Amino acid sequence: MTIPHRLYVGTIGEGLWRSTDGGTKFVRACDGMFVECHVRALAVHPHDPRILYLGSESGLYRSDDGAGNWRRVESPVNGLQVWSILLLPHDPDTVLAGTCPSRVFRSGDSGRTWAEARAEIVQDCPRIMHTRLTVLAADPTDPDTVWAGVEIDGLRRSRDRGRTWQRVGRGHCKSDLHRAPPASMIRARSTM
Predict the structure, then answer these.
(1) CA distances from 187 to 19, 89, 104, 122, 160 (A)
(2) 81 in Cβ contact with 37 (< 8 Å)
(3) What's the domain count of the chain?
(4) Residue 123, in any domain of the structure
(5) What is the mean pLDDT of residues 105-130?
(6) pTM for this one?
(7) How many C-beta neighbours within 10 Å does residue 66 have?
(8) Calpha distance 134→40 (Å, rounded)
(9) Are 169 and 155 spatial neighbours (Cβ–Cβ below 8 Å)?
(10) What confidence score (pLDDT) does residue 48 get?
(11) Domain range holding 82?
């Protein structure tokens, strides 16, 4: 018996939608959070697909039953817009959350305790009011290295699993980052 893929679609203003039949039908999957939330980030646990983390305009949420029910994760990101989430592939108990205004928060115990990472990131921007940490990506060749893209303020790298961050790529022409860099770009930059 083949089990169909579960699909999740996060929306702006319509919450999260889930399909359990490979995309034939979708139902709203927002029990426990604002049904019309802005889903900016979604991450599935790499070893247990029932566990998901969702970033919205009011903070970070977690589901332990495949998006059937959600609960807000008590953390310093409560009330902040969460724009990016990363569960480290080799250590999914380590959860990183990027916010607007741009800040990085880290938990090493599946979200029970949190600390703000050390990172010098511009938070204010006249054109968009606040910068946003739009992407977090694990380096495919080094389990301790994590990358972050900041809208308006460029690329950051952490070599200690997200505890501290440094700006990299000074002089590159693109400082307005909105998505993960390709794996080839990460590999090339990991020697910086």
Answers:
(1) 34, 17, 22, 26, 17
(2) no
(3) 1
(4) yes
(5) 85
(6) 0.86
(7) 17
(8) 9
(9) yes
(10) 94
(11) 74-189
